[in-house]
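Tip: read the tokens left to right.
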């Protein structure tokens, strides 16, 4: 049983040392190059690991934890959720303003009651004989068109 424990301890130290050599930046190794340390670790597992921990390992610095910049799901990203709520509010506000504008235009149209020359955008597209080109039949079907028959609202 003690032989098994010694073998497991040696194997654990060897594997930990080899992984530590591999993860260390090649510019931070001391003594010899990183490739040479790997060769020493493989050829002399116990001695190589001991030498690595005593001589080769960089002092005073641990291997920096690697930061993984993986994408997160949209429902896990607080910035996405915040922006989603802002977009939702802006869209609702735009719809509300559009509805109010339509209501206002309908009220102005009703208040004008077809009076010509009132100066509103709705009155300009109506055929009243005051524009160039005379009356066009398509203008009577589409009151929102301008004097030239386009759908442009002024």
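Filled-in amino acids:
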């Amino acid at each position: 049983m003690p032989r098994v424990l010694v073998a497991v301890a040696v194997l654990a130290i060897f594997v930990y040392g080899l992984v530590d050599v591999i993860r260390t930046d090649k510019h931070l190794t001391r003594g010899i190059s990183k490739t040479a340390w790997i060769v020493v670790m493989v050829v002399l597992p116990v001695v190589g690991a001991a030498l690595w921990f005593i001589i080769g390992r960089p002092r005073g610095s641990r291997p920096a934890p690697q930061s993984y910049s993986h994408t997160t799901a949209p429902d896990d990203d607080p910035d996405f959720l915040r922006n989603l709520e802002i977009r939702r509010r802006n869209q609702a506000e735009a719809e509300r303003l559009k509805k109010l504008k339509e209501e206002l235009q309908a009220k102005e149209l009703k208040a004008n009651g077809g009076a010509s020359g009132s100066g509103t955008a709705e009155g300009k597209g109506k055929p009243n004989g005051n524009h160039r080109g005379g009356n066009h039949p398509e203008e009577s079907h589409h009151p929102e068109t301008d004097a030239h028959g386009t759908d442009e609202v002024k």
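The chain has six helices and no strands. The two ends are 95 Å apart (CA to CA).
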